[in-house]
TrEMBL record:
Organism encoding this protein: Frankliniella fusca
Superkingdom of the organism of origin: Eukaryota
Annotated region (Disordered), positions in chain: 27-61
Ranges of biased composition (kind: Basic and acidic residues): 27-40
Protein name: Connectin
InterPro entries referenced in this protein's UniProt entry, alphabetically: Leu-rich_rpt, Leu-rich_rpt_typical-subtyp, LRR_dom_sf
Lineage: Eukaryota, Metazoa, Ecdysozoa, Arthropoda, Hexapoda
Keywords: Leucine-rich repeat, Repeat, Signal
Keyword Repeat included in the entry's annotation: yes
Signal peptide: 1-24
Amino acid sequence: MARRGCALLLCAALLVLGAAGAEAAKRSKDKDPLAKDAKDASPSSTRRKSLSGTPVPATPAAPGRGAVMNLCDSFHIRTLNVYCSCSSQQLLNATEASCWVFGKSENESAPIWDSFSSQPNLETLKINVREESIHKFVPTRALSFLRKLKLFEIMYATIAELQPYAFANLTTLQELQLKRNQIITLKPRSFAWLPNLTTVNLGENQIVEVQREVFLGLPSLRRLFLDRNNITILHDGAFMHLSGLDELELNDNQLAVLTRETFSGLKMLRRLLLNNNKLRMLGDCTFCEMPHLTELYLNENGLQYLSVRAFEGLSRLSRLMLGDNALQVLSPGSLNGLARMRYLDLRNNELNTLAYETVKPLMDNFKNLSSYFYIEGKWSSIS
């Protein structure tokens, strides 16, 4: 009996000691901040909250570990050559971004272009290549993430060739500003399947020719600027798919020959700038494919000869600029059919004689106080 009593007392003592140890361990765990932080950091824990009670976003993983960096919060990454300033630094929240390229640009498969997926709501994107820096391509990969983009601008790059589908078939795109990028070649379908595009500016590049099917699937295009390039050839039908185009600027190029087929398809064009090219003559019906043309600029071309039918079909033409050329004769009948002419500039040509019969079809128009007929120059007579 004595042994059984001792055994019972020993068991009771062990139970008491066990309970006390468990309580001490619990208190120790509650006081240990490392243990608490480990619990909070576990996958099953709830998100931490700020003092205001708002959940604090998790810190994104560093680039290269499976996560895409935030395009608008990358200035701290010193290894990049492309940096962007945005209307918002929050993920998914920016609508405008201005980016700068420093030094030699990232290649086309670099992670920086994937980072544009962090801001899919961008509506405006401008890329500026800094002085003495190099960037040789349109970032099609980046554009493919921006399904709401309306305006894209890139300037001061060295893009020798514009590749097919360079703008990722963006259905929302409305305006492309591509001035001063040293572009030489436009590949077929460079501008294709952009249904809401209204403006393309390719001015001040080094383009030498415009082939057929460069501009395809652009039903909304209204303004096309190809001024101040080195264009010598416009292939027949180069604009045949631009039936809604309103304004075409081809001034300050090297064009020497134009035919009726050059402007095939431009049935709604109203404004055409061809000044400062190398056009020495204009043949029959050169502009017949553009019955809605109202403004035609042909000054500073060295023009020497105009066919009697050069302006045939232009019944809506109201402004004709022929100044600063080398015209010696303006044949009777060459201005026939221009019933709406209000502004005619023949200044600084080599016309010695101008037959009254030549300008007679326009004289009633010039009685209007808002009309102008400029014929300054070296005149011997108007007969």
